[in-house]
Structure to design on (214 residues):
């Protein structure tokens, strides 16, 4: 059998992990591989330096496994992670980092900006979130409004058992999906209970099917 490239081998290994976990590999100075997940993407590229303050940096500096929460100041989004250094002939050659989305607890509403002011909207009443004209719109049963967070930030805030990213422009509350219809190129169209139709893009279709179990 022909030898696998490092990238191919890591891609295969990445399939063993959850769709929610991103994988990064670095040498002592820079990243050499990155596999983003559907739930969190730190937008690391091969060749990017290992930033001070990251768990990869801490693992390389200490030579030991590091597991902790990192706030949004480093990559723009908060995350939990575990970094494990690896050695060859006793010399530290880099580390492997598993990156998990940070999920917040306690708050159960999203406060939206309406024409009249602000409206706290319970998560249970949110139908879907949409990006349009560079703004994030939160659509509820009775109210809709604008929020300053991006969809990526909302992915880390909203409860995973209810909300699923289905498109680069949409997150939907699965409890408000009325029907799922097949569309072209192995994609789907969701009919929401308010009559809105939302496309599941091809890049999210397999993840969406896995989450909903069909």
């Amino acid at each position: 059998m022909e030898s696998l490239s490092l990238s191919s081998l890591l891609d295969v290994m990445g399939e063993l992990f959850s769709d929610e976990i991103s994988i990064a590999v670095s040498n002592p100075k820079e990243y050499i591989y990155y596999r983003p997940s559907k739930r969190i993407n730190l937008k690391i590229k091969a060749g990017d330096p290992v930033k001070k303050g990251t768990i990869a940096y801490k693992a390389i500096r200490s030579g030991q496994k590091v597991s902790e929460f990192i706030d949004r100041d480093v990559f723009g989004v908060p995350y939990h992670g575990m970094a494990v250094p690896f050695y060859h002939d006793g010399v530290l050659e880099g580390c492997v980092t598993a990156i998990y989305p940070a999920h917040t607890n306690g708050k159960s509403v999203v406060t939206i900006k309406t024409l009249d002011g602000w409206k706290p909207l319970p998560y249970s009443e949110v139908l879907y979130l949409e990006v349009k004209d560079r703004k994030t719109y939160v659509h509820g049963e009775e109210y809709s409004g604008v929020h300053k967070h991006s969809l990526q930030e909302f992915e880390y805030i909203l409860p995973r058992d209810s909300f699923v990213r289905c498109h680069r422009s949409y997150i939907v509350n699965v409890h408000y999906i009325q029907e799922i219809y097949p569309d072209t190129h192995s994609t789907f169209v969701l009919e929401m209970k308010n009559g809105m139709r939302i496309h599941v893009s091809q890049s999210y279709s397999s993840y969406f099917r896995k989450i909903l179990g069909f």
About this structure: Helices lie at 6-14, 55-62, 151-157, 202-212.
